[in-house]
Amino acid sequence: MKVMALISVLLFLVGCSSVSVDQYKNEKPVLSLEDYLNGDLDAYGFFQDRSGLIVKRFKVKMKATWVNGVGTLDEDFVYSDGSTSKRIWTLKKTGPGKYIGTAGDVIGTAEGEVAGNAFRWKYTLDLPVDGKNYHVQFDDWMYLMDDGVMLNKSKMSKFGIYLGEVTLTFVKPAKATGK
Fold first, then answer.
1. Does residue 41 contact residue 64 with C-beta atoms inside 8 Å?
2. Buried b (16+ CB within 10 A) or exposed e, 84-122
3. How far apart are CA 139 and CA 132, in angstroms?
4. How far is it, in rounded angstroms, from Cα 95 to Cα 97?
């Protein structure tokens, strides 16, 4: 009986701790994926394991375009160990503030939602690590800071167990922002 009570309390607390993208609906500047994720972008980031240790740093060169409501994000990654990878996202708006996305290493479909300056994106990634592939879940939050900078924090888990976080800063070159 005590175990059931403890589980009920834990489930209640987990349910109460979830942040909704709608909580950012009045934040400025307002994020338009079609505007911000358009043209050339650079991104700088790192993966931090559950202990807080930064285990991998990386840079991303991105070319983003939108044609007839479909976005293509062509991302080239260069990691601190010299390795490289590529991901090409295809994004589609499905309703007001709602998006879906696919990529070659994404299992199924990513689902996202924009409100105010925030974008929340959830998906499962087929992640290669030391010669093996793992399906890991990403809870990805992006926050537009101004017309040139967007911050990104992604929590990574498997079977609900927290594995670590990816922190990323997107930067549009000055010519792209008009500054």
1. yes
2. eeebebebebeeebebbbebeebeeebebbbbbbbbbbe
3. 22
4. 6
Per-residue pLDDT of the chain (179 residues; tens, 9 = 90+): 554 444 444 444 444 458 999 999 999 999 999 999 999 999 999 999 999 999 999 999 999 999 999 999 999 999 999 999 999 999 999 999 999 999 999 999 999 999 999 999 999 999 998 899 999 999 999 999 998 999 999 999 999 999 999 999 999 987 655 55
In the chain the domains, ranked by start, together with CATH numbers, are 23-177 (2.40.128.20)
Query: What residues pair up with 127 in beta bridges, in sequence order?
Result: 134
Contact 151, 36 (CB under 8 A): no
Q: Which two tokens stand for residue 109?
A: 């479909």
- Both tokens assigned to 64: 């983003």
DSSP 8-class letter at 30 = P
Tokens 């290493």 — which residue?
Answer: 105
Question: Token pair for residue 111?
Answer: 């689902």
d(CA 161, CA 131): 21
